[in-house]
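To illustrate this point, what follows is a protein record of this kind.

___
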Amino acid sequence: MSYKYYSFIIKYNMTTLSQLILGETGCVSYIVFCKKRRECAIVDSFEGFEEDIHEELKRLEFPIVKYVIDTHTHADRKSASGYFAEENGLDGIVKSEITKYKGKKVGTKDGDILKIGNTELKVLYTPGHTYDHNCYLVEDNLLSGDCLFIGDVGRIDLGGDPREKTEMLYNSLRRLEQLPGDTKVYPNHVGAVHAIDSEDKFSTISKEMKDNEALQVKDVKEFYTYMTEGWPPKPDNWEEIMAYNLK
């Protein structure tokens, strides 16, 4: 088993959230599991780490996979979502309706609700890091993808118009700030391998509003400066990876 496993109990509906930190990559996949109805959703699986998902599904005693979800078009890892959607006989990968993905997909709009047994997963359209980025809210837990990290935010320089994407991300962050302060934040990347100072595995909205430098910038022009200066190098072969993930 190559992943570091964390499981968080969500109240009310006998729901658990499994956080799978994949090897030494700092990349994270999630499984949202309704224990009562024995249904689950796989969120942001990555090629090369399929066995991590299989091992977690085995630990959960093989629930029905209701959805396979990508928060956005990834640029640093090849998605395994197509593999899991096909393996489980699904209609396609759950993605924002504006995605340019060419395979089988289930398009979502902002505010849509995905039912996983008795659990509701709410779609929040949060563009900026990519044009097709969604966050997913399950009760008071936010799967924030690459929109909001612990202590930072996702970059905007992997394709597209940087100014347009900066404004989108700025507005998406303002929206996330409106969530209750005790909402837990579970991002797609953790730790130093992604130039994230904190080694925490999750945060809260109130903590990020207090400590996250990106959230302190309340002027969109200043935010553009923040988003375009001093970032680490782009991921290797990011354009090829995005092209692969759009097939």
